[in-house]
Amino acid sequence: MKKQDITTYFNLSFRLGLRQIVSFSLNNPQLAWTAARLYLSFRLGEQKRARYQRQGVQIPPMIIFSITNNCNLDCVGCYAKVLHHSPEKELTREQFQDTIQQASDLGVSVILLAGGEPFMREGLLDTLDEFPRMIFLLFTNGTLLDDAAIHQLRRQRNILPVVSIEGDQQDTDLRRGGGIYERANEVFNKLKENKVLFGTSITQTSQNFELVNDEAYLVDMMEKGCKVFFFINYLPVNMESNELALTPPQVLRHLAILEELRVKYPALFLAFPGGEVELGGCVAGGKGLVHINPLGEVQPCPFSPYSDANLKEVSLLEALQSRHLEIIRNSSERLDESDGYCALWKNREWVEVLYKNEI
Q1: Residues 58-108 pLDDT 10s
Q2: Which residues contact 208 (CB under 8 A, 6 or more apart)?
Q3: Fewer CB within a 10 Å sphere, N or C end of the chain?
Q4: C-alpha–C-alpha distance, residues 27 and 348, integer Å
Q5: What is this structure's pTM?
């Protein structure tokens, strides 16, 4: 599939997702109004991106922004801990805010905030309050999502908190630490009580696959108030954990399960890789997303920690015009994801050579 077709698919997926949120939020007028307003903002951003596209500049609809390396947990097999650790200084609050402003000006509509633990960044919600027309997906372990933060989220409805778990209590506490699953459930209850739209992120492995794809388990999560589900295919960051990766049959079965769930239930079910598997190509490098690490380095994706531009030194627009990102966008045959594995991770030696060589 051509690059622009993948970009169009990514835009369409976001539009449909926002429209679905409007539909299942009609019993909550304030939330439905917010979703409708954000839908219109997304369409305006889409028009901005189209104008840049006509000028030969690829602006992604979404940026994954790892805003800090700091975390209060020490999860087993954490890719951020392995790939993104650095002694260099992270972006200041002013630089962080300026980066979001630049993204907004370019037409980026969605920023997925990750870490580390995003709430380790001081004044996070106050900073995001400056951008009411942008959509923020805030991935958190939930342990720092206290009553004060939930009270702010009741007002800042353009922020969707996404609490990460691993399935049930046994799997979650085994990877994240004792008591984390119980704490996540406390947060789910408080978010539901305060009528805050929220989601969950589930890292699915070959071991927990049956549980997290079980309809009864997902219905229970929906009854807890969860309306958005992100399924992240486990990425082995070392040889010792290769057996945890999904098998190709599991990848295809998972996508089929999601199609059935989308028809039956008023919730969003998203998979990464998901549409990439269906399309056969990677959406990183600007087709659908890029990654900014806590130091301000612009990278193809979180699993490809290479960069030729730092936002402390250049603008986001300049960084997105990287020749390296362009090569990645135009390498769809090499960056095939039909097996459900991250293409850039499979081809990490090629990416490393690409970034080390002068172009």
Answers
A1: 999 999 999 999 987 766 656 555 555 666 799 999 999 999 999 999 999
A2: 166, 167, 171
A3: C
A4: 47
A5: 0.90
